[in-house]
Task: structure prediction
Amino acid sequence: MRPGFRWDSADAFLFDIDGTLLNSGDAVHYFAFRNAIGNVLGIEASIEGVPVHGNTDVGILRAVLQRAGLNDAAIDTHLPRIVEQMCSEVQQNREQLNPQLCPSIPELISYLQGHGKLLGAASGNLETVGWLKLEKAGIRPVFAFGSFSFPRESRAEIFQHGIDVARLRLGEHATVTVVGDTPSDIEAARFVGVPVIAIATGIYSFAQLQACGPDACFACGTDLLAFAG
Result:
């Protein structure tokens, strides 16, 4: 932790989902991208080769469709239907979702709730997809609100919306901290001017995250709790 930073001192915490709260042991979300694009546009498209970790669903869709030759105006025209198709497919296949909670997440959530903190989800997932993952993982009820991809496209937009919602609930001077697992989370939190805690439970190592200069960096939620209080 940077000197003087108390990781649990904020009034509200915004949690990324994938790689931070949970990791998915299924391909439901993955196949929804391909199938939705195929259903709406009639083209074969794959997200292979497109950066997904730290990206947003809309950002991924835009990159895939640009690679397929569509310009931004055409992409913006088709996005609402593609998003609708993706959400519908994940909803239909919700029983196949297999999210696996990252270490000590229930204990971390319980600790923060016990200290009166407001918890929000702030994820690059589409809203329906994000809530379904949290629901299947058994932790949706602990999040008072969420900020997701579409119409927001960048992580900074998603985080800023989450901050705005938290301050509407708690007051304009409420302090907010982001918890994420990618360099993109750290960069976006810096952009919107709030502290960020990085936990190495996604694809990025502790060393990789620490090199990005978060306010605090931990291997997992278990280590986070060891520095509580």
The CA atoms of residues 32 and 86 lie 5 Å apart. The mean pLDDT is 95. The chain has nine helices and eight strands. The longest strand covers residues 118-126.
